[in-house]
Specification:
Length: 328
């Protein structure tokens, strides 16, 4: 949270050229970490910007390093920057939200949904120009039990797909084809449906679904073929549930998703909301459930509450809307 005696926006305006505190995940993406480091250092030196590069060589220390970056940035009116994939960006955003610090991104991942949605280039040198010359703009943050998600949060089959996809990535590299192949193999091995009780606007409903997916990224919704992108732009979250189907039908849904036509299927339920509560329709034998947030998997206690955060994240991004999000 913002330190006592400091107005929420004061830290952002305290310096004309605020220092950059870059949390750099050395394990993100397939790029050369030394090249990225040299590019960042060179661009900051040329622009006369103070740089503090905080390298993460152990993923278990990412949260602690992000918290340290925020504390140091608060002390001098600096900017907290995440250099990595969606998981790294999520962890640094979790530490930054509510701190009064501006947030920046140097994308290094495979899909980079968050950065692409907000017009931040995948090329490090180009992303640095955005970071060095643009101003922060408020962007929406999703929460599930106070855990941040910028792209999506999910339970059931989708976290399982993500877990098994990581093994494929380590063996075959990071690409969309590898991700699709991993998904096919996961579905062929079988899965279970969840029995859930969801509460939306005071109305409770029991559902049976292989997965519950909550999106906070308009670009991803568009690429899956859902009109819910407009709901996200309007300040809501997008909920997607699949009806229970057999393996072959589920493979068909996976293919539809890859082709951007999942939203056309009558085997998919979708809703837009600002707050959704999820409970177990019957005991799981535990009070916790596996949840994925921006690709990172952990355990959360039931019930789950998905909601739009009351405070936005001040992201440094281009003023104009990204080209790939512009409509006709």
């Amino acid at each position: 949270m913002t330190s006592a005696g400091t107005a929420p926006g004061a830290a952002l305006a305290s310096r004309s050229k605020p220092a950059l505190f870059v949390v750099f995940n050395l394990g993100s993406g397939a790029g050369d970490a030394d090249v990225v480091r040299t590019t960042v250092e060179g661009a900051c030196a040329a622009a006369g910007r103070e740089l503090h590069l905080l390298s993460v060589d152990d993923p278990k220390r990412l949260g602690a390093i992000a918290a340290d970056a925020v504390m140091r940035a608060q002390a001098c009116g600096g900017i907290v920057v995440a250099a990595g994939g969606d998981g790294t960006i999520n962890a640094v955003a979790q530490a930054t939200l509510g701190s009064g610090c501006a947030f920046g991104v140097l994308p290094q991942g495979t899909f980079n949904y968050f950065s692409r949605t907000h017009g931040i280039p995948a090329d490090t040198a180009q992303a640095l120009q955005v970071l060095l010359h643009e101003q922060p703009q408020d962007v929406q943050v999703g929460l599930v039990n106070e855990r941040v998600f910028l792209v999506n949060a999910s339970l059931g089959l989708y976290p399982k797909l993500l877990e098994e996809r990581e093994g494929w990535k380590q063996q075959f590299g990071r690409s969309r084809m590898v991700a699709f192949g991993a998904g096919v193999m996961t579905l062929l091995r079988g899965y279970r449906s969840l029995r859930l009780e969801i509460e939306l606007q005071g109305v409770e409903r029991k559902v049976r679904t292989p997965t519950l997916f909550v999106g906070n990224n308009a670009l991803q919704m568009e690429q899956l073929g859902f009109p819910l992108a407009q709901a996200i732009d309007a300040g809501e979250l997008a909920g997607i549930m699949l009806k229970p189907v057999g393996r072959l039908a589920m493979l068909g849904l996976l293919l539809r998703g890859a082709l951007g036509k999942l939203g056309d299927s009558d085997r998919v339920l979708s809703i837009a909301f600002k707050r959704l509560t999820v409970r177990a329709a019957r005991p799981f034998g535990t009070r916790r459930i596996k949840v994925a947030t921006d690709g990172e998997i952990g355990w959360l206690r039931l019930p789950l509450e998905f909601r739009v955060a009351g405070e936005p994240l001040p992201l440094i991004r281009p003023a104009a809307p990204p080209v790939e999000r512009q409509g006709p």
